[in-house]
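Quarterly update from the structural biology core.
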Amino acid sequence: MGMPHGALFGEIRPSLSAMVTDMCHRSFETHRTVVQDVPSNSFCASGMHLPNGSWATFGGNDAVTVGGAAGSDKNPDGTGNWDNLLQDHDGRRAIRVVNPCTIQDNLDGNNCKWYDHFAEDGMKRARWYSTSEATGDGRIVIIGGMVRGGFINRQFPVTDPITQNGQSEPTYEYFPPKAEDPPRFQFLIDAGGLNTYPHTFLMPDGRFFVQANLSSSTSPPFMCHKCSDRSQFSGITITTGRPNCRICRKMLFVFIPRLVGQPCFL
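Predicted structure, tokenized:
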């Protein structure tokens, strides 16, 4: 649950349009809510569950101030790195994880706090309005997004259809990360400017069915490296194949925080 930063601490902020967020633990039985601080700006992040009940979120907005303008301390590209007024850090590369806790637990303890070491542990690309989805090889794939906040991933006139003059991030990467640079996902380029928060559905053969704008496609096999019929697909082609990978059909396993390399089978 997100809300304007400081709103439940009795602090008065000059504007709520900055949309810097805190996170809350909420009890549906007692209706009690406890606010927890998240240092980086998680506005417009994406998220995915881990098998132990933990929740991970990826990316977000840069550091902003009143009215959504860039924060007081700027990055080289003019986006906000930190804001003295709202006290938010650039969250576009951030990876945040929170463990499952009850409202009776010590929510100030390290086991229940949000892990948000954005300066040390972050994604390889800045992502705002990305999609996060569990894969079949023990990872989460983070797909697409914008480099900076906006409404659509298009800059007019269109002189750069791939990155829209640095606004679009038509790539995907993994958590836990792989050594490779984030590969380009041609489908996001072909889908045009309305390609943020693409809808993804994991299929039995290890690919995703992906939908964005008016386009749909089966993705490259992000996760199942033993499946056959792994042709690359893009554009609006919808292709089906006969899966023969037992692991992809029967199991989905993802990594638990701090146990990287030890997959947990669901």
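Residues 131 and 197 are 5 Å apart (CA to CA).
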